[in-house]
Amino acid sequence: MTKILIAAGGSGGHIFPAVALARTLKKRYSDTDIRFVGSDKSLDRRIFEKEGFGFFLLSANKLPYKISPESPVFFLKLSIDVVRAFFIIASYRPDVVVGFGGYVSFPVILASRLFWIPSLVHEQNVVAGRANRFLFKLANRIAVSFEETKKLLGRAAEKCTFTGNPIRSDEFSEKSASGDRTIGIRRFGLDASKFTILVIGGSQGAHSLNETFIEALSALGQDLRTSLQVIHITGVKDYEWAIGAYEELSGIDHRVHSFIDRIEEAYRAADLVVTRSGASAIFEIAFFGKPMILVPYPFALSHQLENAAVFAGKGAAVKIEERELSAGSLGDSLSSLIKDRERLRNLAEAARRLSVAEASDNLANEVLALVKR
């Protein structure tokens, strides 16, 4: 039996591609034993339990961006987690270790190096995160979601391969991606004749995006507003507030959710998606061939800014940076796109071209190539 240990935690952006890989590996090789290492956030535990994979948990430790009073606490937790990772690998004895970036990948890949176990690191964003930039030196192979990333790796580019960003293939099948829009519309009890906007604030929500979008709707003309309907995924923190904000609007049918498990049903229903530009989200949207307005989160070492820049540069999205975000700028973009169906089609076609439907299989091949037979 081949044993594979996957380190992914802290956010859906790290975990969902890892789950997609694990599903593909199990589907292709039923005798593969897969375990996860995540953080002790409730999100990680909930996803791993739902997926039915065994897992270990490290701390939800966050590297400070600069030396601060919290730095000693960070390094103490890191030291403890390195020891934990050492014992996890010593007891489980995986054949290969895969890291998806973020804090939890660091101690796990480091421990695998000490045991001379081959490892692969996957980078979801154009610009690598801080943990992955260090781990690239330790890993045997590097896999990336964007072709542009390879140009930024220097000497590490020699062991880099482009796989694309894995998506959850069971839900996001070709049939699902090309399925009838009315299936999604029916799921949410919406009107098939109306233009449907899907708003995604991310798994943790995005208050400024949520707030500005609703303000932009209120500034639209009455005729345009009555032709729209909205599916708005707010995140937990903004859920109650958003319900109240929509109740104050008139003429816009809406469905507000804090989180949606079957996100593919929302993608199906959408004619336009407004979202942040985390890699997992935008590649899922691209798979469904949906036009997007991207408002990158500005405080993550520019990762989302670069992701959005690539999609916008290739004609697959409209980009609005946070410093430019206002009810006016977002409202103007919404209005112009809704009225320009040809541009919507062009955006959708460009997005679909950026999708790599076989990304999970590509990455699975790279992982299995590292297994010592």
Structural summary, described in words:
This protein is α/β, with parallel strands linked by helices and 373 residues long. The chain has helices spanning 12-28, 42-51, 71-92, 105-114, 130-135, 174-177, 181-187, 207-219, 222-226, 239-247, 263-269, 279-287, 303-313, 327-339, 341-354, 359-369; strands at 3-7, 33-39, 54-58, 96-99, 119-123, 141-144, 160-162, 195-200, 228-233, 253-257, 272-275, 292-294, 318-319. The chain has 2 domains: 3-165 and 357-369, Glycogen Phosphorylase B (Rossmann fold, 3-Layer(aba) Sandwich); 174-354, 3-Layer(aba) Sandwich (Rossmann fold). The protein contains 16 helices and 13 strands. The strands form 2 sheets. It has a 7-stranded parallel sheet with strand order 3-2-1-4-5-6-7, sandwiched between helices. The chain has a 6-stranded parallel sheet with strand order 10-9-8-11-12-13, with helices on both faces. Strand 5, helix 5 (130-135) and strand 6 form a beta-alpha-beta unit. Helix 1 (12-28) crosses helix 16, helix 3 (71-92) packs across helix 4 and helix 8 (207-219) packs across helix 14 (327-339). The model has no long low-confidence stretch (mean pLDDT 91).
